[in-house]
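Go through this:
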Amino acid sequence: MSTVLYRKYRAQNFDELVGQDHITKILKNAVKGDQISHAFLFVGSRGTGKTSTARILAKAVNCLNPKKDGNPCNKCDVCVSISNGNFMDLIEIDAASNRGIDQIRELKERIEFAPSKGRFKIYIIDEVHMLTSEAFNALLKTLEEPPAHVVFVLATTDVHKLPPTILSRCQRYDFRLGTEEEIRKTLKNVLDKEKLKIEEKGLDIVVRNARGSYRDALSLMDVVINSQLRSENAKEITEGEVRDVLGIPEVYMVNDLLLALVTGDSKKALGCIKELEIKGTNLVQFTNFTLEVLREVLVAKISAKDIKEYDFAKGLQLRDILELIKEFLNVERELKGTTNQILILQMLIPTFSKEENVVKTTTTVSKNKSDDVKNTTIVEGKSESVNVVNTDVITLSIDEVEKNWKRVAEGIKPVNTHLFAFLGASKPVSIEENVLCIEVPFKFYKDQIDSPESRDAIGKVIFEVLGTHCRVNCSVNESVKPKLQSSADVVLKNIPVIQKKERTEEKKFVAKKKITADVEAIFAGM
C-alpha cells in the first residue's frame, strides 16, 4: 500500500520544517541548552506543521546522539522508533474523541511511571480545545506540577477556547500559514522526487486551493497524481486535468458571470448560472475560485497594474470590486447553510440590477380612468456604480396615492399591526419623482416609520398596491391627528393614583399633560 504524500514527505528534523523558522530556532536553542519547558502550546491553522514539530521535539529531547545544532540524528533507535510510530514514551491523544475527565484521570495515573526507554515521556494532546471544562480542571493541576520526566505538547486550531489558566502554564508558539511561494516550492520539491511534471497554471490552482496549508497542498496533489495513473502520459499533468480532478471551473465561466453582473445583463447572468447547474459544477468551489479572481483583480488595481485576462475588470473602480467581493463572500457563507445552492447565486442578479444602464418605462396615470395611459421609454447612460437594474417606474399623482392609501395601510397590517396603526394616522401630502411625502401627528410615529425594517415593509406594499417603487419621506405635523383615537384621558382615569394633600394643582396639571402626550402617541389611531 502506497503512503500518501503528506506522510511520506513529513519533516523529520527542525530544518525540514517550512515557513516556521521563528519557532524552530527557539526550539533548537532550547534543546542545545537543555532548557526544555514542561508544557508547550502549539497554535495555528490545520496543516501548518504543529504535530510534525511536536514529534521532532520528542526526537530531539530523547535522541541518543543529538546533533550540535539541536536537531535529532534520525538514526538512533529512539529516532527510528518515533519515525515509525512505535516509541512507547511518545503518547498522542486526540482530544476530539478523548475529551472527558475520565481520560484525563487515566493520563494523570500513567504519567507517574518513569519513561521506559527515553529520557522524557512526551504527551501530545491534539485539538486540546475540545476538552470539557472538567477535563481542563483535572489537567490544570498536572500542568502546574508535572513530574520532571514529563513534557506536554498541546496543539490547537482554536486557542481562544482554552481557559486562561491553561494558557498561563504553557510556552506558546504560533504557527503561520505558508505563503504561496513556500507552498509552491514544497510541491515542486515533492514532484521532483516523484519524477513528475505539472503545468505552471495547474500548479497555481493547487497552490491557491491549499490556502496556506502544507498538508492540504500535498493532499490535493495526491488526488491529482492518483487520477493520472491510468492516463497515457501519467508523468505530465496539464492544467485541464487539474481542473477536472479538483472540480475547479474554467476561467471563462467566472469571467462571463462577473461581466454579466457588472453590465446589468440579467439574462446572460441567468444563463451563466444555468450553465453551472447543467455541468454539475461544485458551487462552493466556483465561489471560492471567483473570490480568488476578484482578489487578483483587487491587488492589480491597488498596484496600478493592467489586467488583460479578465474582461469584466475593464473600467471597474476599486469600490466596484469591493462590492463584488462583499457579495460573493456573502454567497460563500450562505452556500454552507442551504440545500438550494443555485438559488443563492441567482439572488445575486437583482442585487447588481439597480442603478446602471437603466431602461425606465415611465407611465403617467391620470385622474380620469377613461384617459389613455401614456408610455415613454427613457434610456439612461452609464453611471459609475456597479449596481444595475431594469425597472418600471410609474409617475403617480397625489390624488391616486390618497385614494389607495387605506389599501397601503391594510397591506401592512398582516406584517406589523403597530405600523398599520401609524400609517392609518398618517396623511400623504405630495409626491414628486417617486418621493412620497407623508405627515404624522407624533414624532414617535415618525421614528417607527423611519426604521429600516419599516421602510422595507412599506416599500414592498406600496409596490404591490400602486405598482411602483416610492421612497417615503416622513415628517411630523400635529394638526393631522386622527379624529378616531383612543382617549388618553380615559386611560389615565383608570390608573390608580395616591392623592397627597400637599400636591399643588400645578404639579397635577404638568404630570397629567406629560403622560397624556405619551399615551396619546402610543394609542392614537389604534
